Amino acid sequence: MINFNHVSKTFKRNQVLDHIDLNIELGERIALVGSNGAGKTTLIRCLLGEYTYDGEVTVNGLIPRRERSKVLQKIGFVPQLPPPLKMPVGQLVGFAASLCNTERKRMEDVAARLGLDFGKISHLPFVKLSGGMKQKLLIAIAMGRDTSVLVMDEPAANLDPDARHIFFELLAERLENTTMLISSHRLDEVAPLVNRVLEMDRGKVVLDDRVAEDVSLSGKLACRLTLRRSEEAIAKALLGWNFRDMGGGLEWQGNVAGPDRLRFLGMISRYVGVLTSISLDEDKGGEA
Ligand SMILES: Nc1ncnc2c1ncn2[C@@H]1O[C@H](COP(=O)(O)OP(=O)(O)OP(=O)(O)O)[C@@H](O)[C@H]1O
């Protein structure tokens, strides 16, 4: 479905992509990881037809650089940096919907699921939204329409835990008929969402691994933990994950979205000195 054939890209004398060969099939969910400057965004920009390059890129046989509008009809894109648009949110969604031949209501519905109150923000200029609100709106624009490819550059970085859970549910609803390319410089952010990991380093693909899909995207884990003593820092962190204090700051309960488990454990590992027990229970799900 997506092919990169000997693709190289040079900015002035800086070779940023170095003979990339890639074949991505329908239904694959790919984490594109690598350190800052590895070439991930440049690879995505070539796929979207924004840059010239040496070699060949095709999406369903179409060449993005030549047939850009046809290719972009198929691709939903969430950029890493929101564009500095002054256009009011309502107008932006209307414009995006007409460009993509979809109903604006579909985009507004996705925005509402992610927790945006459209009535309150539709008259605001896009640039005036908070980072998280911009990200939610860009996700809504990318996902509130039919696409066969979703390309997302650090899509969940600014989302709170509840919105992340909804975002994972939205992805889960499209597994069958969508190819996803999710870029991040943190593997733990995206690993549970994908079935293939591509790692880039200095313009080359240095690792290409198929991974087991054993985490349900829409599932939740009931978590309980107990602490040796109560501490403000861990309490603040747990409240940020919407956990409830069940007794003097020593016992906590909450839910963690399945794909967020690595991220959660990474957070909790900072307080391992005060942790006396932790359980993550897949079966109970729902309310803890
Ligand atoms: N428009 C540009 N003009 C000149 N150099 C560029 C341009 N875009 C990217 N580069 C350079 O290309 C290299 C790869 O950048 P790229 O943004 O693709 O990396 P990345 O893997 O997405 O990094 P990050 O994780 O920091 O977003 C960097 O050295 C960057 O400075």
TrEMBL record:
The keyword ATP-binding applies. Pfam families: ABC_tran (PF00005). Residues 2-227 form the ABC transporter domain. GO terms for molecular function: ATP binding; ATP hydrolysis activity. CDD domains: ABC_DR_subfamily_A. The keyword Cell membrane applies. Keywords: ATP-binding, Cell membrane, Membrane, Nodulation, Nucleotide-binding, Transport. InterPro entries: AAA+_ATPase (IPR003593), ABC_transporter-like_ATP-bd (IPR003439), ABC_transporter-like_CS (IPR017871), ABC_transporter_ATP-binding (IPR050763), P-loop_NTPase (IPR027417). SUPFAM superfamilies: P-loop containing nucleoside triphosphate hydrolases. Belongs to the ABC transporter superfamily. This is ABC transporter ATP-binding protein. It comes from Sulfurimicrobium lacus.
